[in-house]
Structure formats: C-alpha cells, structure tokens
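Progress note, sequence design subtask.
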C-alpha cells in the first residue's frame, strides 16, 4: 500500500487530448491546416502562403469561415523567424521569436502585445521527421505537448495534449 502511494506521488501529470490538426499542401505551395477539437469537430482553418522572399502569411478562420486574424512570419539571415499575430482588425496581439540550434532543435519565445514573455516552446525532430514539442508557461511550468508526423503524401498530422482538460495550446 505504501509503495503504491509512493508511486502515485511521483506519477506524471495527466495529459488531456485537446485537439489535432492536419496540414496539406497544394501544387502552388499553399498550406491548408484544419483544426479539430478533442471530439474531432472542426474548429477552424489556417491557410498559409509563401512569397518569393520566403515570408509566410497565414490567415486564421473559424469553423464558419470568418476571419479571426493573420500571422506574418519573416526569416532573418541566420534562419531565425519572427511571427507577428494580428486580430481581424489588424491590431497586433503578440509575437513569436524562433531560433534553431545546430542540431535542428528550435526554441520559440511567445510574447504578448506588450512584449512580455507568455511562454516558451521547445521542439526537436527525430531522424524520421517526427517533431516533439514541449510548451511551457512564463514560469517555466509545462502546460502541454505536441507531436507531429508527416506521411508519404506530405500530409502533416499534429496531436496536442494539455495538462488542463479545458486547456488549449492553439495559437488561435
């Protein structure tokens, strides 16, 4: 009995499935991501286009096709990216700054509209191209995880888990 109680104390926090996304790319390079909640219901879409300079623009829509906002990503000469998020009215709501180390692991700092740190995401990719991401809040506490894999047709599937059953780690 004591042994079982000891193991229970050290058990990892419960992870709740909070949704998934599926990303496909057409012959023009446009990516379409469909977001679903934990019940498989579509909650929205994100459509990403890339210009000739490699800058990416993503338009986020809800399940009814109404625009929620946009995200614009630029890449500097070191391969670091900055993504600026705007709401449907064009007001900036936050930014993400991503850097990549020599092993291909990425660290993303999330900021609110005032430039305050709201959290960090750490991603690593294995030899098969599968990506694992750990999300932390501003205090360094893990809030959830994401795992992505790409099939032979180029379709990327992402599963998201949160430490809170009502939580979400979607950008939108």
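Output:
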């Amino acid at each position: 009995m004591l042994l079982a109680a000891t193991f229970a104390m050290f058990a990892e926090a419960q992870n709740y499935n909070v949704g998934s996304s599926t990303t496909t790319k057409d012959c023009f390079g446009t990516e379409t991501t469909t977001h679903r909640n934990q019940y498989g219901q579509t909650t929205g879409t994100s459509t990403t286009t890339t210009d000739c300079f490699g800058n990416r623009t993503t338009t986020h829509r809800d399940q009814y096709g109404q625009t929620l906002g946009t995200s614009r990503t630029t890449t500097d000469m070191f391969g670091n990216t900055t993504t600026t998020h705007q709401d449907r009215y064009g007001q900036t709501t936050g930014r993400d700054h991503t850097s990549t180390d020599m092993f291909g692991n990425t660290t993303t700092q999330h900021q609110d509209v005032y430039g305050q740190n709201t959290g960090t995401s750490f991603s690593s990719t294995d030899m098969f191209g599968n990506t694992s991401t750990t999300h932390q809040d501003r205090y360094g506490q893990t809030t959830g995880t994401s795992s992505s894999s790409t099939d032979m047709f180029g379709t990327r599937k992402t599963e998201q888990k949160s430490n809170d059953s009502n939580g979400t780690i979607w950008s939108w």
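The two ends are 45 Å apart (CA to CA). Work on this subtask will continue into the next period as scheduled.
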